[in-house]
Amino acid sequence: MRSLGPRLARPGLALLAVLAACIATPPIIEPVLRDRPRVERLDALTVRVRWPESFATGPVSVRASTSPQTSRTGTLLGTGVGQLTLHSRTEDGPASDRQRLFYTLLPQNGGPAAIVAERRLPLEGADNFRDLGGYATANGRHVRWGRLYRSNALGNLTERDLEYLSQEKIQLVCDFRTEPVRRADPDPPIPPIPAKNLDIPVAQQGVNPRQMRERIRTGGISALGIRNTLLRAYRNFVIKDSDRWATLLERLSDIDNLPTVMHCTAGKDRTGFASALVLLTLGVPEEAVFEDYLLTNNYRKEYFAFVLRWAPLYSFFRTDPDDLLPLLEARPEYLAASLSAIRERYGSLDAYLAGPLGVTPERRAALERNLLR
Q1: Nearest to residue 57, comparing CAs of 84, 80, 76?
Q2: Which of 50, 174, 298, 368 is the most buried (most CB within 10 A)?
Q3: Would you list the DSSP string of 99-150?
Q4: Are 292 and 12 within 8 A, CB to CB?
């Protein structure tokens, strides 16, 4: 007799899908986007480039190129006031969402130009791989595009992703995951010349992925408990892991290691703190640093929705989706806990850098030279 298993499995899966669709998805913390020029993708062939009145009140011309170095002389896409909706294209013709362009905004009244781009790279296997370029410092300089990237785990990068990344010529991959996690999900070599790997393991006590899955399955998780665990972890980044961040900053001060990509598992906590530390060291204001930190919630929105809908089914309704939000989200209070720990223990960021992180004036100057324009 032919097995009835596949016949029974299909209705069962359909029922689970219906139940998952009926489970409400809690709201996610959204980043507060400050007034600065930016580019947003609308669909595969269309982007919106917009800018505030503080940048230009009159007409602005928008040019595009595949490189920030040539965007000022790239293809003229149009002129507008406040914003433009544009087809992504360069002098080579139409582009798709697999091609990230750099847009130069040139105010016709003679004000300073700005270079903007999509932060997230168009990858299939890493939804939080993004460029830290473009942020302005307090003294008017800008972080260079294409020098420093942050990401979640790289193990799911496709061949197409690796082909795309070969254009970025990444020299160093800094992995903040612990050794057992790296062994279970190793990074693929990034071409064309395989990037060097630097393992900087940062353990987050209470956030072991395997143990966390088991706690979710058995209902042994609470929103308050997870929130407190993450707040403690962010303070420990400062209290216990300063030698790790010292190694990171030492490597970034060597131009031969750039471009660099930093990553952990979700690209949220360890990578979030590391990214914030680098940006603050370069002089990027805290409000922009927090904005960048919270962008994880925007770029991982689909993944969050998937987890929040299926976790109750995975746990036979022992885990409430609301209890998972503090684990999934980047929250301002988490990063603020790290910055508070720096001020409480060392008095200021400068003292923290000069003390346990070993950032001499010469090293800081090298970081600025390598990462700022």
Answers
A1: 80
A2: 174
A3: S--EEEEEETTSPPPEEEE-SB---SS-TT-EE-TTPBPTTS-BBPTTSEEE
A4: no
Cα 66 to chain centroid, rounded: 21
Rounded Cα distance between 292 and 288, Å, is: 6
Q: Has residue 97 got a pLDDT over 80? A: no
For the CA atoms of the chain, what is the radius of gyration?
22
Q: What is the amino acid identity at position 124?
A: E
**127, 147 Cβ separation under 8 angstroms:** no
Q: Any long-range contacts for 317-323 (C-beta under 8 Å, 24+ apart)?
A: 318/217, 318/218, 318/219, 319/216, 319/217, 319/219, 319/221, 321/23, 321/24, 321/25, 321/26, 322/26, 322/223, 323/221, 323/222, 323/223, 323/226
Q: Cα separation of 64 and 91, whole Å? A: 9
* pLDDT tens-digit map of 141-156: 999 999 999 999 999 9
0.70 exceeded by pTM: yes
Handedness of CA 191, 273, 29, 327 (dihedral sign): positive
Domains and their CATH numbers in the chain: 24-118 (2.60.40), 119-373 (3.90.190.10)
Asked if residues 63 and 86 have their Cβ atoms less than 8 Å apart, the reply is no
Is the pLDDT at 7 greater than 50? The verdict is: no
Beta-carbon contacts of residue 160 (< 8 Å; ≥ 6 apart)? 98, 124
Q: What is the pLDDT of residues 321-361, one digit of tens each?
A: 788 889 999 999 999 999 999 999 999 999 999 999 999 99
pLDDT at position 350: 97
User: Cβ–Cβ contacts within 10 Å for residue 255, how many?
Assistant: 12
Question: Of how many residues is the chain composed?
Answer: 373
